[in-house]
Amino acid sequence: DIVYVSISGFGENGPYAQKPVYDPIVQAFSGLTTVQAGADDRRPRLIRTVLPDKLTAVTAAQAIAAALVGRLRSGKGQHVRLAMLDAVLAFLWASDMGAQTYVGEQVSQRTAASFIDLIYETANGFMTVAVMTNKEWAALTRALECPQWLEDSRFVTPALRDQNIDARLEMTQEVLKTRTTEAWLARLEAAGVPCAPVLTREQVIAHPQIIASGILLESEHPTAGRLRQTRTAARFEAPTVIRHGAPHLGEHNQEILSELGIARETIEALRRRWLIGAEVPR
């Protein structure tokens, strides 16, 4: 009746099955660092957050939920096996491994989408601007005061704009350097162009949108003081409440071991021998 998940780096089979694994190793082996580089012939780059670690945890939670639903239907539990490598490959496949989808076809080396990414420099910082449709492209040319771009044969359709992405983004970058981020945001938002400022971590937590979303919660920890954390991203009908901080080492030993039927004297003996952690007084 038990549902449980075991997590490995590369899975139970294959030449890498017994290898030790950390997040950067999975980033490298899965192709994620090549995706982050922008092309197969560029220097691979790590994503500077532990994405495989976090993604595997989310995948494990989903797997447990799915297995519990299966148990409700079948009455049987199961052992779910999850590899970090599998979690990342499944995550990447639809958006970044399209050339590897068609079996038997010769796949040319993946080339970069552009030598410029969608982070633009402005007169006082950075911002991002993204346009996909003809309507958005026309709005961008108006906001940037470059109507001549609408007549440029390289940019008439979304497909042509994609083919000529280097030229298009370079032209956009040169214009955006001429004014501040705030000035461009006002113009672009008024024109209906998708855009946003690039925020530092300190700017993120102070931004009105973040505050309005309620994603950040503050609470008092008995030893660490006042802490700021995120609530769960999914909002349920019952609001997220932080009832208490993480337990200290051994804080619940007495309670848990007593529930298992272990006598208090035995628990104390285990504690004296440092076989279990000692409770930390508050």
Description:
There is one protein chain. With 282 residues, the protein is α+β, with helices and mostly antiparallel strands. It folds into four domains: 3-96, no CATH class; 119-198, 2-Layer Sandwich (formyl-coa transferase, domain 3), CATH 3.30.1540; 200-237, no CATH class; 247-282, no CATH class. It has twelve helices and seven strands. It has helices at residues 23-29, 32-37, 51-74, 84-96, 134-143, 158-163, 165-176, 181-191, 201-206, 208-213, 253-259, 264-272, and strands at 3-8, 78-83, 119-121, 126-129, 195-197, 216-221, 225-230. The strands form three sheets. The protein has a three-stranded antiparallel β-sheet, covered by helices on one side. A hairpin with a 3-residue loop joins strand 6 (216-221) and strand 7. Helix 3 (51-74) crosses helix 4 and helix 5 crosses helix 8. It is extended and about 85 Å long. The model has no long low-confidence stretch (mean pLDDT 91).
Write the layout of secondary structure elements.
Blueprint: E1 3-8, H1 23-29, H2 32-37, H3 51-74, E2 78-83, H4 84-96, E3 119-121, E4 126-129, H5 134-143, H6 158-163, H7 165-176, H8 181-191, E5 195-197, H9 201-206, H10 208-213, E6 216-221, E7 225-230, H11 253-259, H12 264-272
Parallel strand pairs: 1-2
Antiparallel strand pairs: 3-4, 4-5, 6-7
Helix pairs in contact: 3-4, 5-8
